[in-house]
Predict the structure.
Amino acid sequence: MGREIQLDGAETSIIKALVSAGNEIDGGKLITLCEDLEIAELIDTLRGLIQMGYVDADSNAFYDAEEMEDIAFRVNSGYSKALKDALDEKPEKKSKRVRRE
């Protein structure tokens, strides 16, 4: 299997908002759902997710909230399962096997 995706706090907030919205969400709604993030942090993080290929957008040219409002964003379907797994906060299961000597 490929590398596991590691997300920081802002990336997690954005991906959760996109996943909860369904297939596609406009920038205005995304700004509302990610109100805990400063707009500059939201834009910077979102552009990073787009560059990594995790998020698709109608346009990559947005620099402020006004430009972002009419753009549609969605999770890249090729990464959707891996991103959902990255959001899953369950700890790894440990084996109950005990070595006896």
Notes: DSSP finds five helices and three strands in the chain.
